[in-house]
């Protein structure tokens, strides 16, 4: 009898592991992250500064804070991807920050990127107007960049292929 009870408990435990939902996993992950932020183990993405240069491989991004410093004001953002031989993207626009969500506007291209405290990630699927910012087979979809500098002065140095500043005047 004891052996049957142990087997039943093991089966119930295994069934519980296999029937987890994505929502429960997300909630547990969010609770763990919140506890890590509260303990000071992880920086809070909602308050980590965004300004500076961001990059991964040949992908580049610059971000400058709003001129008036207001929390509702738009930040400047510029993006350049250059894969050579007519393959690339160049865009300049604005972003508004709401915690870890970044509402990006690059002309008619509008989407929400995510900031996790270390990386900025564009969605894998972008609206159709975003394709006009790229040439060849290049795309801004699923772009991921990490900070390489917190310097606003360095962010102002990012230029498009024709020499136009992507952030700043």
Explain briefly what this protein structure is.
The chain is an alpha+beta fold and 169 residues long. Helix content is 22%, strand content 32%.
Structure description:
This protein is of the alpha+beta class. It folds into two domains: 2-38; 52-155. The protein has three helices and nine strands. The chain has helices at 2-18, 22-38, 152-155, and strands spanning 52-56, 59-64, 75-82, 88-98, 101-106, 109-115, 119-121, 134-135, 144-149. Strands 1-2-3-4-5-6-7-9 form an eight-stranded antiparallel beta barrel. The radius of gyration is 21 Å and the shape is globular. It starts with a helix and ends in a 14-residue tail after the last helix.
Question: Strand order of the main beta sheet, please?
Answer: 1-2-3-4-5-6-7-9
Separation of termini? 80 Å
| Largest beta-sheet characterization | 8 strands, antiparallel, barrel
Beta-strand content estimate: 25-35%
Tally of DSSP helical segments:
3
- Helix and strand element order: HHEEEEEEEEEH
Any low-confidence stretches, pLDDT <50, length ≥5?
1-19
List keywords for this structure.
about 170 residues; alpha+beta; 2 domains; globular; disordered N terminus
Topology:
Layout: H1 2-18, H2 22-38, E1 52-56, E2 59-64, E3 75-82, E4 88-98, E5 101-106, E6 109-115, E7 119-121, E8 134-135, E9 144-149, H3 152-155
Antiparallel strand pairs: 1-2, 1-9, 2-3, 3-4, 4-5, 4-8, 5-6, 6-7, 7-9
């Amino acid at each position: 009898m004891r052996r049957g009870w142990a087997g039943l408990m093991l089966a119930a435990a295994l069934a519980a592991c296999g029937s987890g939902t994505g929502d429960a996993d997300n909630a547990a992950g969010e609770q763990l992250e919140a506890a890590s932020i509260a303990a000071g183990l992880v920086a809070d993405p909602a308050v980590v500064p965004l300004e500076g240069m961001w990059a991964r491989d040949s992908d580049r991004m610059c971000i400058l804070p709003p001129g008036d410093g207001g929390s509702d004001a738009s930040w400047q953002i510029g993006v350049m991807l250059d894969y050579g031989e007519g393959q690339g993207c160049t865009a300049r626009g604005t972003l508004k920050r709401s915690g870890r969500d970044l509402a990006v506007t690059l002309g008619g291209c509008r989407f929400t990127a995510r900031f996790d405290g270390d990386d900025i990630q564009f969605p894998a699927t972008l609206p159709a107007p975003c394709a006009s910012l790229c040439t060849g087979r290049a795309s801004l979809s699923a772009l991921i960049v990490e900070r390489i500098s917190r310097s606003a002065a360095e962010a102002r140095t990012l230029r498009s292929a024709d020499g136009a500043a992507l952030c700043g005047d």
